[in-house]
Specification:
Elements: H1 2-13, E1 21-23, E2 32-34, E3 56-59, E4 65-67, E5 74-80, E6 85-91, H2 93-97, H3 100-112, E7 120-123, H4 136-144, E8 153-154, E9 157-158, H5 160-168
Parallel strand pairs: 1-4, 2-3
Antiparallel strand pairs: 3-6, 5-6, 5-7, 8-9
Length: about 170
Amino acid sequence: QLVQANREVFLQEIDGVLENLVAAKQVHGTRVKRVTIKDQGKGAFTHESGIDDCDGLITNSPGLLLFAFFADCTPIFLVDPVQKGIGLIHAGWKGTLGNIAGKSIEAMKSCFGSEPRDIRAVIGPRIGKECYQVGVDLREKLGQLGFNQSPYLTDGHLDLGEINRTLLL
């Protein structure tokens, strides 16, 4: 009940209504889902009603409000002003290494006819590199993808924002 009340306070600030919100049941994966007006309200009132098994949402349906949850993971906001499409991505280390950013761009291309050069991206606040020390297992995975050196990995500290920026470019 408190969560719903907090969402309503937030939505009042942007002249939105809870019924237009769409949220996913995030799993730290790479699945991107196109949502339409038929998905309106999914995840708005309860977590259980959210879009299953999904960490990226895209839409070109006017009025839908994409909503996601972040702690130290990387939020990525996408907008295609030409084709009028938007995306919201939850990119933790698993999603980042699975290139959810690129998969979201490809989904916008496929679903809306977006040209990657037209899509604008904003990488939001996330855990800072100085606070995100990773173990040997993850460093090996980073090495397999070419992200095991500076600026991505420095003295065992990972910069998720920089990896996502490179993937988006």
